[in-house]
Amino acid sequence: MELTPDSYVVLNDGHKMPVIGFGTYAPQEVPKSLAEEGVRIALEVGYRHIDCAFIYGNEVEVGQVIREKIADGVLKREDVFYTGKLWLTDQAPERVRPAIEKSLKNLQLDYMDLFLIHNPMELKPGDDPYPMDENGKVIYHNTDIRDTWKAMEDCKAAGLTKSIGVSSFNRRQLELILNMPDLQYKPVCNQVECHIYLNQTKLLEFCKSHDIELVAFGVLGSSRDAGWIDQDNPFILKDLVLNEVAKKYDRSPAQVAMRHLLQRGIVVLAKSFNPERIKENFQIFDFKLSNEDMKTLDGLDRNLRYTNGSRWFDHPKCPYHDEY
C-alpha cells in the first residue's frame, strides 16, 4: 500500500484511524500551553489523529484547539480522530462511564473516536490518581479486566466513543478479553511502546492475527521523564546505524525511525512541542526505505523498554514479565 498523509487503517469495527498521530504527553513541569500550541501546529501541518489521556492533565487545552479549528471552519469534527484513555484508578466497572464523561466535559466534545484502557496495572479506585499507603507505596487493585471491558463496551454502545481498545497489554491480557464468551467488540488496537530498540515483532504478529492494530508510542525514545525513565538508557536518535541510514535518504533519524514502523504496518504516534520537529515528523510520506534498510533497522532490536514499569514491577498485572 502506498502511504500518503491521508493514509489510514480500517479498524475491526469499520472506523478509520490515520496512520500517524500527534502525541500530547509531557512531564508535569512542562506548561500545558505547550500542548495546546503543539496540537494547533500539528492540525495546521496536517495531522488528523490526536492522542491524549485524562492523566496528561491537558484535555481542556487539547479540546479547546480542536473546537477552535472546527469553529474556524478549517476542520469538521469527523476530520479529527481523537484518542482518550481510562486511568488506572477508574477501572472498576462503575467508574468507567463517569470517567469518559468527565474527559468529554474537559474536552467539550460529544464523543471520542477511540477510548483505551490506559494500562492493565489497576490502582485503588478513587479520585487520587496515585493512591499511596502510609509507607508511600502506590496501592494496587484487582478488578477483573473483563468486567472493565464490558463497561468499555457499554460506552461504545452509548455513543460516547466510536471505538474501544487497550494500551500496554501483553498477549495473555489481550486473550482474556478475546476469549470472553459474551464479547461484543474486540479491542481495535493495542497501543504499546515500540521503536527500533523494541520492535515488538511477536506482539505485532499476534495482534495482526486477531485484526487488532498495533499503535506505537515512544517511537523516538520516550520523553525521558526522570520519574519513569532510566536516564542511563541510550538515545535512539543518536544510534549510529539509524544515522547512517538517515544520511543515505537525506532525512532526519526521527523521520527514518518513524517510516520504519509505518512500513511494518504499525500506526505511529509522534510527539514534540518544537514547531519545526512537528512539521518534520509529518514529512515521512515522500520517501520509502528499501527492503535491505528495513532489515538493517529490524536488526537493531535489543528488547529495550524505556517505560518498563519498574516502580510497579511487583503489580500482579504488570504486563512486562511475559515475553510479549
Automatic annotation (TrEMBL):
Annotated site location: Lowers pKa of active site Tyr: K85
Catalytic residues in the record: Y56 (proton donor)
An MF annotation (GO) of this entry: oxidoreductase activity
NADP-dependent oxidoreductase domain boundaries: 20-301
Binding of substrate, residues: H118
SUPFAM superfamilies, A to Z: NAD(P)-linked oxidoreductase
Keywords linked to the UniProt accession: Acetylation, Eye lens protein
Origin: domain of life: Eukaryota
Family: Belongs to the aldo/keto reductase family.
Protein name as annotated: Rho crystallin
Species name: Pyxicephalus adspersus
Organism taxonomic ancestry: Eukaryota, Metazoa, Chordata, Craniata, Vertebrata
